[in-house]
Amino acid sequence: MSVRDTYKKHKGLTWLAGILIVAVIVVGIVMKDRAPDIRYITMPVKRGNITAMVQATGTINPLTTVPVGSFVSGTVQYIFADYNTQVHAGDVLAQLDPTIYQAQVTTARGNLDSAIANVKNLEASIIADQANVDKLKATAVYAQVNAKRIANLTQQGVISQDQDDQTQSNYIAANASVNQAIAQVSQTKAQLSEAQAAVVSAEGNLRQAETNLEYTTIISPVDGTVVARNVTVGQSVAASLQAPNVFTIAQDLTRMQVYAATDESDTGQIRVGQPATFQVDAYPAQTFTGRVSAIRLNAFTVQNVVTYDTIIDFENPDGKLLPGETAYVTIPTGNANSILTVPNIALTFIPQVPVSELHDLYTRYNIPAQATVSHVGGVQVVWKLGADNQLIPVAIQTGITDYTSTQVVSGDLKEGDLVVTGEQNLGGDSGARSPFGPGRR
């Protein structure tokens, strides 16, 4: 072989080797880009203290709110109270135009006087009629005696039969007059009963008219503070169907309540008498204290979320807190000291792998079925890093939580173990790798 041929051969091999090297480099780069590079975010299992609590949002309300309505219709003539006015029971809040009701009182009083006068007239008539009955009875007695005497004389032939017949007729007429007079007395007594009933009715109408007149003056039923005024001077108030609310009075603003909307899942942890704290936007740096006084049984459902009003009583001696303010409530429900805790975010972590691989790992590490589908009995799954950064599922029984950490009651965890709270896929397709072999952390 000539030197030239040898040179050509080596040159060809050099090009082939170069191509192979380039190919290897390219394949290496491509494989590196496609190889998974997973970084697990972890937090340690710690020993510490936990205070469990229920958190909710509520509204500040007066202890007692009294709506003041108008029983009668009319035009507002005067207003004597406004927002924030301090009032006492019996104070005049407003005055409706009383003209119509004064006229009704005058008419009712006249009707009563007329009814009373009618009763008196009938009573006088009864007395006169009774006297007439007595007179007619005496006449009838005389006619009876005279008729008997004439009848005896007629039998003796002293007096004629015509005269006897006349006296008998007079006697019958006298008895008829007595009966007629008695009937007249009975009729007058019946009229008197009706007249007396008319008096009672007229008295009732007068009382009603006088009461309606009194209702034109709207007064405060309690001591308190006016928190709402719903009328102005000249406004017509219509009370045809129901009493319109013209004022609202908060009875005592030194003692108030928070109506906290607590989730149905939290109501089982709350007890009457438990202390509670809350904050308001008006004083963000200050924490106020109160005590649970009731959990009301009427539920509120909004978009399938069920809540109950938990009532928290608190003192407001300086009047800093106002009705209607939003309160951010915290109710401590339990406490545990020097216990193992895991961060709550670790309880929600699930590796992004096919379901079949998860089931295989659950089976390999004896994870109870209920721990993988629900939190029955407080049993949940966390993932810790084992040897070579392998992910290992661990079933734990949880206790109380403070929304940041959760108590570990039992399970294969010890202080210092790293539990996974998240993962970062730095390269490659996360669906094509398995987190259960060697990996990076």
Write the layout of secondary structure elements.
Blueprint lengths: L2 H32 L3 E7 L1 E17 L2 E5 L4 E6 L6 E2 L4 E5 L2 H57 L5 H55 L1 E3 L4 E6 L6 E2 L7 E6 L4 E9 L11 E6 L2 E20 L2 E11 L10 E18 L11 H10 L4 H5 L5 E7 L5 E11 L3 E7 L6 E8 L16
Antiparallel strand pairs: 1-19, 2-11, 2-15, 3-10, 4-6, 4-9, 5-8, 6-7, 8-10, 11-14, 12-13, 12-15, 13-14, 15-18, 16-17, 17-18
Descriptors:
441 residues; alpha+beta; conserved putative lor/sdh protein from methanococcus maripaludis s2 fold; OB fold (Dihydrolipoamide Acetyltransferase, E2P); 4 domains; six-stranded antiparallel barrel; 36% helix; 35% strand; elongated
Structure in words:
The structure is a single chain. The chain is an alpha+beta fold and 441 residues long. The protein folds into 4 domains: 1-34; 36-50 and 339-432, conserved putative lor/sdh protein from methanococcus maripaludis s2 fold, CATH 2.40.420.20; 65-97 and 217-249, RNA polymerase II/Efflux pump adaptor protein, barrel-sandwich hybrid domain (OB fold (Dihydrolipoamide Acetyltransferase, E2P)), CATH 2.40.50; 99-215, Helix Hairpins (Orthogonal Bundle), CATH 1.10.287. Helices cover 36% and strands 35% of the residues. It is built from 5 helices and 19 strands. The chain has helices at 3-34, 99-155, 161-215, 355-364, 369-373, and strands at 38-44, 46-62, 65-69, 74-79, 86-87, 92-96, 217-219, 224-229, 236-237, 245-250, 255-263, 275-280, 283-302, 305-315, 326-343, 379-385, 391-401, 405-411, 418-425. The strands form 4 sheets. A 6-stranded antiparallel barrel has the order 2-11-14-13-12-15. Helix 2 (99-155) packs antiparallel against helix 3. The protein is elongated. It starts with a helix and ends in a 16-residue tail after the last strand. Mean pLDDT is 86; it is low at 1-35 and 428-441.
